[in-house]
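#help-structures

NK: newbie question. if I give both the sequence and a SMILES, will the prediction place the ligand too? trying with DP6
OV: yes, paste both and it writes out the complex. here, I ran yours:
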Amino acid sequence: MTSPASLAPQSVSAPGKVFLAGGYLVLDRKYTALVFGLDARIHCHIEPIRTQSGVYLNEIIVKSPQFREAVWEYGYRLTEGNGGVNVTQLRASHDSSLNRNPFIETALAYALTYISSCAPQYLIQPSSISILASSSYYSNPGKARSSNSQFLDFDVTLEEAHKTGLGSSAALVTSFTAALLTHYLPKDVFDLSQDESLKVLHNLSQASHCAAQGKVGSGFDIASAVYGSCLYRRFSPSLLEGHGEPGSLGFASKLRSLVDGGVEWDTEIQKAAIKMPAGLRLLMCDVDCGSQTPGMVKKVLAWRKERQEDADKIWKALQEGNEALAAELTRLATVEVANGDAGERYGKLREIFKSNRELIRQMSVQSKVPVEPPQQTALLDAVSNVPGVIGGVVPGAGGYDAIVVLIEDKAEVIAELKKLLSGWKVDEDGEDGVKIGKVGILGVREEMVGVRLEEPGLYKEWLTG
Ligand SMILES: Nc1ncnc2c1ncn2[C@@H]1O[C@H](COP(=O)(O)OP(=O)(O)O)[C@@H](O)[C@H]1O
Ligand SMILES: C[C@@](O)(CCOP(=O)(O)OP(=O)(O)O)CC(=O)O
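OV: that's the protein plus ligand as structure tokens.
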């Protein structure tokens, strides 16, 4: 077997996401969602492992050096019966326990299977992959290794890390998969600057992310990790049923056909349909709250099934509101907006936010799911009254733990928000007994670009040891 001419080190990053509109609706292909990519990124750097003896073991080492005990070593082998590449996690020592990372393990098996099915003549040589995440994915305090380092040492294990909900697993799977494909495939087969390659990356990452999660979600988080901010209509869930598991008979050719267009994907991703007007930006607030609300998606869908007519009425109106929001943002971004005061210019946007929130609250009350619970209503109302704030919503599935706000991009607006939030307190526990604690501003904003190559020099201080 031969190898491509150069297995050069490669670095790739993919963005996190925030839903401005379309949570829940997006689970149904009838509706769309407005999802913004964020400037919080997960980076993957891949380089060949060089051994002095020239003897190679079939081994890929993955490290997440910002966290403790975050090293995963895998052996890999091509299976018989067209089953693709099987990966097996190796133990550091005989008596150590396996600390598994299902997202890395699954993305690795899927990507190596795809690579070996495209280029069976290439030997997959051992490599080492380092993962580096922007600090806003986690609310743990971190330490910089040097004054110009953009990544922090968290000094906790990944299990101890507090996620802020920006979509770490989707950004990770996308940049990890992109790094492997860029490294192992020649540029004429895979090139991140080509639309065809982005489609391959999207389809493959959706497949492995769903497999690792053990469920088929709407896939909006992988779509925005690949394409950046977009108006998103999901794929039919049936697409991802029935390709089997790595190692099973025919997995390699089924995966190849699923990824390469043998199977027609009905996803719709419209990049041009969403823009951020000059002078505006998104800002996210992280709400400290002990309460997790599992099962919200199931409960909302059960309500919709039970009270279809009421639910359809609300969802139809929400879809119109979501489209109006995308259209107004795009209009403000593209049309020469006459001078005039900001109050007038952003009046329509304000109205859209208000009426979308009203509909979300109706959904909350009817389904008895805290999508915008009263504690968040109080917070969003207060934030929306700060001069320069256009409006805000609970992103995605909603709940108690975050809000996203559209504001005029001015230091004084952020300063006023900080003032409000520093003393923020909801006096009463809600009827549900949930108390929300400190509200902090996350250092993130929207970003339009999706996955991209990075300069390997960025990670110098993280690649040793
Ligand atoms: N920096 C990282 N390094 C390695 N794995 C990570 C990292 N960040 C996230 N992950 C993986 O993603 C999982 C979190 O995914 P998930 O619970 O779906 O959260 P999210 O909503 O942020 O995607 C972690 O348990 C871990 O397996
Ligand atoms: C309800 C949803 O439509 C959106 C959930 O969005 P969030 O951003 O709240 O979710 P996670 O990142 O998965 O925690 C479910 C879906 O689309 O899969």
